[in-house]
């Protein structure tokens, strides 16, 4: 795509701003730092050449219904979440099902920085410098069997620490899913950090999915279960309102949600002068992913 480059976020972020951010975050990272950091490959051909939002923007305006439905509930309440130790149960159609400790996973995968556009169905958007690894690396650890066609994901269910789970705002645990070819695509990552910090809890620590060509709700947070299956998995928002939230949820300016026209988006953090922008099909990743949907009706399969 036109605006891909090999820039690292530090190349497009003034050094002073970067230092301030480090000072601001100093001390808060603690033990968990080792989870997100370590050797990280700096530049990716998959990154976009756009200026990322600040860490403050990215970690203070969130959707994470486990902590409440308000945009500032996650930053207020997520600090109580325990994320260490953390493991992921990988099962279903795999050769090596089992409980995979996050620290062991991180020894076997390659962390990279990926600067991605991020687009919520509510029409706001950001640019996020994620740190993470390709989901296909995790699936390789478990050994996907030939019969598998989909991947299902589940978020932690722990109402003692996630007060939103004591309400019925959604059906718990939060669930998402991808077709296997979408899951194996190199743009699809498991993210463990943002900038050079471990994933903020309100953004889905310690491990969350990021699928940049789909609406944000597909990018499920705080994942504890990954299941390979031959049936399209149930997904939380689709279960709630199937006509509003399809399984595919590819960003598409031509398919509007009943409450939100998807023709335009509003970048977060632009301040007073932030202008709405035209929504890009597949959120700008058309060149990379359109072929996954050759021959499919994207209105029916929204
Ligand atoms: N477990 C879980 N994952 C979730 C959500 C949620 O409520 N619970 N919200 C989704 C929605 S609607 C969006 S837009 C993104 C927001 O991610 P961010 O807060 O890191 O920007 O997370 C997605 N993943
Ligand atoms: Mo969203």
TrEMBL record:
Which top class of enzyme applies to this chain?
Answer: oxidoreductase
Where is the secretion signal located? none
Name the residues that bind Mo-molybdopterin: 62, 65-66, 120, 155, 203, 208, 219-221
* Biological process annotations from GO: protein repair
Does the keyword Electron transport feature in the UniProt annotation? no
Record domain Oxidoreductase molybdopterin-binding: where: 81-237
Q: What reaction does this enzyme carry out catalytically?
A: L-methionyl-[protein] + a quinone + H2O = L-methionyl-(S)-S-oxide-[protein] + a quinol; L-methionyl-[protein] + a quinone + H2O = L-methionyl-(R)-S-oxide-[protein] + a quinol
This protein's UniProt keywords: Metal-binding, Molybdenum, Oxidoreductase, Signal
- EC number, UniProt record: 1.8.5.-
State the InterPro entries in the record: MsrP, OxRdtase_Mopterin-bd_dom, OxRdtase_Mopterin-bd_sf, TAT_signal
Q: How is the cofactor bound?
A: Binds 1 Mo-molybdopterin (Mo-MPT) cofactor per subunit.
Mod. after translation = Predicted to be exported by the Tat system. The position of the signal peptide cleavage has not been experimentally proven.
- MF terms per GO, please? metal ion binding; molybdopterin cofactor binding; oxidoreductase activity, acting on a sulfur group of donors, quinone or similar compound as acceptor
> What cofactor does this one take?
Mo-molybdopterin
Instruction: Name the protein family.
Output: Belongs to the MsrP family.
Q: State whether it acts alone or in a complex, and with which partners, per the record.
A: Heterodimer of a catalytic subunit (MsrP) and a heme-binding subunit (MsrQ).
Known role: Part of the MsrPQ system that repairs oxidized periplasmic proteins containing methionine sulfoxide residues (Met-O), using respiratory chain electrons. Thus protects these proteins from oxidative-stress damage caused by reactive species of oxygen and chlorine generated by the host defense mechanisms. MsrPQ is essential for the maintenance of envelope integrity under bleach stress, rescuing a wide series of structurally unrelated periplasmic proteins from methionine oxidation.
Q: What is this protein called?
A: Protein-methionine-sulfoxide reductase catalytic subunit MsrP
Native organism: Aliiroseovarius sediminilitoris
For this protein's source organism, the top of the classification is:
Bacteria, Pseudomonadati, Pseudomonadota, Alphaproteobacteria, Rhodobacterales
Record gene name: msrP
